[in-house]
Amino acid sequence: MDKVVKTFRELSAAQQPEAGGKGSALAWLFQANYPVPDGFVILPPAFSGDTLTGDAWEQIKAQLTHLREEANAAAFAVRSSAMAEDSAQASFAGEFETVLKVRTDAAILEAIQTVRRSRHSERVQVYSQSRDLHAAHELAVIVQIFVPAQSSGVLFTAHPVTGNRDQAMISAAWGLGEAIVGGLVTPDTLVVDKTTGRVLSRETADKQVMTVTLESGTDAQPVPEAQRRAAVLSDAEAAELVALGTQIEALYGHPMDIEWVLTKGTFSIVQARPITALPAPEPPVPTNWDLPKGSYAAVRNNIVELMIEPLSPLFRTLGLAAVNTSMKRLLADFFGEQDLMPDDLIITIHTYAYYNGSWSAGQLARILLNTVGITKRMFTGAVARWTEDAHPHYRAVVADWQAQPWQRASSTALLEMARTLTETAIDAYGALVSGIIPAAWISEGLFTAVYNVFIKRRDDPPAPVYLMGFDSLPILAEKALYDLAAWTRPHAALAAHVSNTPAAELAAQLEAAHTAPGIAPDLWRDWQHRVRAHLQRYGHTIYNLDFANPVPADDPAPLLETYKLFLRGEGVDPHARQQAAAARREQAIETIQQRLKGLRLKLFHKVLAPAQRYAPLREDGLAEVGLSYPLLRRVFRELGRRLVANGMLADPDDIFWLEEAEVAQDASQLDQGKSPEPLGERIPQRKSTWRSARRATPPPSLFKILGVTLGKAKQARLDRQSAQIKGVAASPGRVTAPARVLHGPEDFAQMQTGEILVAALTTPAWTPLFARAAAVVTDIGGPLSHGSIVAREYGIPAVLGTGIATKRIRSGQIVTVDGSAGTVTLGSEETPPA
Predict the structure, then answer these.
(1) At a CB cut-off of 8 Å and minimum separation 6, what does 724 contact?
(2) Which domains does the chain have, with CATH numbers?
(3) What's the pTM value of the predicted model, to 2 decimals?
(4) Tens digit of each residue's pLDDT (9 = 90 or more) over 383-398
(5) What dihedral do alpha carbons 723, 726, 731, 736 form, nearest 10°?
């Protein structure tokens, strides 16, 4: 009989296709002297159906004897190697059976035939049919020396999400890789620069399960407590692994998906295949921040602070048009003239929003000459502008639209409705930013200055203590969520279900008609009603002014994570915290009243009263900016659903990646019964451009002098890689803890109690996270912004306005936040063992 068992060393290039994708890859790497455990391939002619022939088994036993001598009584791993497996068209990852750590001839024979028979499994059939791969069922089998991994994982030699060929991504977990492949564990994730070996980002997961080897076979077991949050790979090990992967990539000539194991400091490669479905490389990260023609100054403040990320195409076109229209109308009322401002108050550079400060000399002169009148018009009725006019009008507009059968409206009418709701939201924000918000800033700043200069003694509390402990909408929302957890806790079955169900799954169950197992139907419906009522009352707070971002009402999973936190008894009771803050405030006021007399006491009360009045009003107002957003997003998604039904888009949410003109044209076509042109092919490139822009650090201010744009100081600070980041001292205290960098609500579930919250900006919708945070660090903000106010309420340090924290700090990195000095000191790159 011909030789149907070929060792890795003797498998020729001509025979490698018959050995299947995995077998040929391992043989090629072994022959090129890469660290591949030795083994052999059983070619398909060795089988009669799924049974080994007698001659083939004799050849296998001879090879087993040789390998046992080579590896000193080794155990073996038995794996599949189908003809189409590990190819550029399909990976078949995890589809066929694998049997690990088998020793005896009888166990090895059974393992070989188990792997061979797995080609008939339903999952293999479905997978191969979906890719029209008919040769997938012709299967070779690999027998290889088993490596008892201390840790293992997967290396992608190109970034699988961005397509960046200059970066590698590593997934790593303790024990064998089966826990990763089987989805039993969330692995650590590292992104590494392939040229320098530098770790660019690191997500150290809570690894609860690991696959370990027994005397024979394997088993899933809990990870020891000391290892759960410990980093699997050091920076040096990650660099070594990426260097090895880069060499393998060069051997193949294209990006590779490589499975590795690490034992006693040595890496072994147990699988290598081309990366399938690798996206095209993303555009380079923007570095040239030139101002557009006609502009000489731009800053990222004011309303732009609620547009911290690159803008979606739909908001950049429809949303910004509403912003510019509303803000110009508001300023025209204050200025008394129409032409005292740039044509576009908000401009975009690399899809980032900037406030246009390009006022002409004539405009500035006329504004200065009319300062008294402008100031009078701006501050006359500032509070009433929001409380009596804008806010009631906003609520009425939303309620009116909600009461209408808008789902039956034409597509063009839906788009017009979306414009109206957007403009109303921006008008409401304009009323806030021209009244309540500056009043809060000025009154708190004035109180702080008067208190520090004329009243405060060495042992007196800081000025913010006198403004703490009041109710505001974010605080009420947190207390209501805490109360919901307290109501849930006595119902044992319901509490267990909520605790053990992922937040995203719980969110889906809010509308489910069926009752969760083991829970009384009436109790289940009561729970659904209470959670929905909470979302109806508080679920409109926005994370970002760009309506492409979900709000808690339409994606409650991030909010439910905090609900589950309270249910576990973690976090601080917000009722007790507020009562303690109020008691401290009243005690401080009483001490001052006993000490001061006459004019100083009158001055104290005169500057304190407006500061205490406006601060909660500001938080209420900011939390209400998104009143229309749950309905607005439903309207847009209804338009998106209609486009999906007509084959124009793949998903309703893709509508946010279209521009207003495209949506208007398609809406008109739909109303006329025509078929609009497909738009889906444009969206991947737009998403790619957006992701590239998101990785940039937009300068906080830009100025053009003699045709040259200046304003890259923050970027220069980022490039210097100083060990200390400076920002604004926003809430006192000092703490050292692991950092958690969050870019939006999609990341909230990663936040663990006791970590330092690092974000570009926090809005009222971020308030639930403060219950878990040891400190807060942001790119944007100051001592009077939302993040500082809430941090002081929680009694945790905060450093805001760093400009670069989210780019410099990595999740899991140990940092020290000094909220009194306004500094963040970068420590080790990873979380130490618990």
Answers:
(1) 823, 824, 825, 826
(2) 5-145 (3.30.1490.20), 151-274 (3.30.470.20), 713-826 (3.50.30.10)
(3) 0.72
(4) 888 889 999 999 999 9
(5) 0
